[in-house]
Specification:
This protein is α+β, with helices and mostly antiparallel strands. About 50% of the residues lie in helices and about 10% in strands. The chain contains 44 helices and 16 strands. The protein has a five-stranded mixed β-sheet with strand order 12-13-16-14-15. Strand 4 and strand 5 form a beta hairpin. Helix 21 packs across helix 25. The longest helix has 20 residues. The N and C termini lie far apart (about 75 Å). About 40% of the residues are buried.
Length: about 950
Amino acid sequence: MLDHNTLQRYLDDQGLTIAARTDIKWVCLQLEQHSSQRQLSEESLKQINHAISNIPTGRQRRLKQARDQVLQYLFDVCDWTLPSKQESRCQDSALKWNREIQVFNDDAGKLLRSYQQLRQHFIVDPKNELKNDLAWLLTVLYIEVAPLPLSYWQAVLSSAEPIEFFEGQYTLKVPHPTPIAAFANNTQPSFTRLPLSLFAYRLLHQYMQQQTQGPTTNALLQALNHALSAQPYYLAARTAAKWQRTFQSLWHHQYQVPVELLRDISDPQRHVATLPQHCSPKLPLAIKKTLYQPIVFHTQENQDGSQSNSGKTHWPHKDLIKYYRSKNNRSDVVPAEPCWRQDNILPKLLFHFCESLFIEGGVKRDNLPVNTVDRYSNFYKNLAPLSYETACEPEKLALWAQQAFETLETKDSQQWHFYQFLRSVAQQPLTDHLDLSQFEKPSLPARIDAFRLSVSQVHHVVDYLLSSSNGHPLQRLFASVAALLGFYGALRRGEVLRLRVGDIRQVVNQANHFQLTITGTIEGETKDRKTRHLYVVMPEVAAKLIRIVLKVHAESDNAQPLLALCGESITSRANHYLYPVTQVLKGLFGQQVRFHHLRHSGVELTYLQGLHLAYEREDNHLASILDDKAMQTMLTKTSCLARFQFWLEGRDFSQVNDSLLLDVISAQFGHAHYATTRRHYLHGLERIIPLFKPHKRHYSRDELRYLLDMPAGSNDVSRVLAELSPDYAALSEQDKKSYQPCFSEAQLLQRIVPNLPVSRHKQHWSDDEWLKQWTTHTPKQWYSDQTFQLMNAQALRMLTTGELTMKALSQAWQDLGRHQGLVVNKKQRTAINHLGGATFVEALTSENAARRTEPRQLDIVFNCPCNQRTLKAFETLCHHGPLKYFAATLTLIHNRKSLNSHKLALVKSCFARKQDTVLHNVIPTGDTSLNITLHTPLSAAIFQRPLAQYFAD
């Protein structure tokens, strides 16, 4: 179950001795019998403990030690959920670790003072004996970069290219011994990232240029013991783990790093770096065209061969494979992309999977043979159908995937190929919510899907969602608000969908502050089945959209879903409000981006806001790293205090127990442990460690010469000072000699890296910008060409003034084509003419008369002959067309003395539907005719005139 060497390395880094291999193996076998997921129940732990207590010899003691070591590893690294008592034992080990650090406080003080002396000596004379000293380099890395275990420093110094310029600074890539990044493969290893100070960068860069062979861990330890036991340190030699504790103590006191954060920066396994982003400057045209467009399902009218004549499912990916087999035959045509099918979307998903393999190749090879692609899809005949509805719901999709995986055979690698197919499915916009963690081996570290977006990037997504020419105004509004709640509220996908009108309220006298209640509803439970209260602060430009949604729902019931029309299913909401967000995210930032990454990004923003308060940093502290003025605005002291107002309650941050900060942040997002937040949502440390250190500091001229690669004693440093500091340039020659230069590392980087990349994206949004954008793209009239535009400026104005309620609008939406809208084509208009034209009148029923307070409803009336031509027209409009949702009263006005009527039989058997009423009115004189009255629930006062004009034009 668990690799012994992996556990040994973990314990070595902790300074602990691993239990005997046989004891570890015994515990692992017990765990395999009692757990197949990343959790251990109370009962299972009792059974394991009982099995240990039944051993009469001293091995019982050793097995208890092995049990604790294995469970500690599974808890810390593999994200296992353990019984509460065992979790407390695991957390107690962290307290023990903290006590061990305090033992080295005195040595840490001596180490820091001696290091500062040697550092000053080194920058005065960079060519002295320390230049190529391995222990000196290691000491600098420990003190200025991070107090990592020695084994990680050995891996870094043995790496070919550990330095990377990333997000406006030099960073250090630290490889993970066991892959934990979702992006890890044969060509891209799993790693985390640390910021490099300019001093550490210069020293490491010189070392990497000269090194021919990486040092061993023992060589590093010997060098460290030799150097730090000599002048000026005079510290006793010790183990690698104790040296790490010494440097951790230094960080704890010198940089004021709390214990939890210290564990983060000391253990690279607790975080994963993000890869450099490749952002598209514009949304691809193909996505622009399909944004908000309803998904076209396979029907008899748009046959694509998804169903064979025999009724069996046809698999288009087999046609694609056949095409590539006979590609040399120029007469062959590339198979067209199939349509979605409501009963089974697998044919289209498999087509995408095989197409990507042919175009992009595999993980190891650029070009895959046709037989290989055929073999990679060899599982398709054994799969149960995956309906469109099932695919849209995360829980149902995960259950289908698990059941399908279990039915496949291990021979022919069917399960492995199916898992690769699922990875492709998780990249598709429609199914990007598929969680693949259930297929990972529980004893392996949980994979981390590291990606984050800045404030400006999220705002660009909203720009595209609001400005699209497709979809109706409420759809664009709801999709935009879904993206904003996913980011600023860091809500999960299901939490956005299930958020109800009564679950969100605007804080009194705070226009851009909102309080959310995240709880279970009839549509589903929260992930941890607990209720939490979330405090959200966002810029005014975003808050205005939230307030508009609250305004349109002013008369709605508290149980009404917030981002929905009344009666709209959760599947429809996911397809029409969240799916467009995913489309834009993937179009701008790549197929690997998911809706859930908005939550990752929102958690990081809150985390940075908390650290800015804790370390009293200005909003420009990370300006050069973030390169995002919109994000910088969210890091001002005012914004940070507002974000944590629910906790501070008007107090200054210095007046609260700041040791609770990380737990408070985690609780906001529904995490029982800060470790979950840190590991899965906060990526890398390149934005965190700079907050521990001052934004600017004083530099001596000798240090500037060393950092800027100038010769020792060079007077050229005066010219550089004049360029960097206008104050220096204005001083007299005498005053210049006593001038103490004070710079940020970002200022010096401009000299080292003259052509620093600068974001060209928009970074500022005025308060009314999105509101104007939304109203600009809202139709002004009720109809245009063939389309009746229910969601228009007039209807939305009535919605905000109370003349029209959301319930009434939703009823009209349901009856007038839903998201597709009411479209009367040429054929249907001809049918209307055959029926004698439509007349729109107020309904005159006894029920309406009795309830005078309710608005009168609208009837659509046709007076026409009763014949086959009328029947065809009626079927076109009311059996299959835009008026099929309305019940009808069919009154046959019959000039006939006999009760036996062929026309009456025609009306009853052919005209009438299940919901229709047939009346027979015999008249003595006059022509026989058919009166068709369609009863709508629409308000006559609001819809009579626009519908009459639309049907008349």
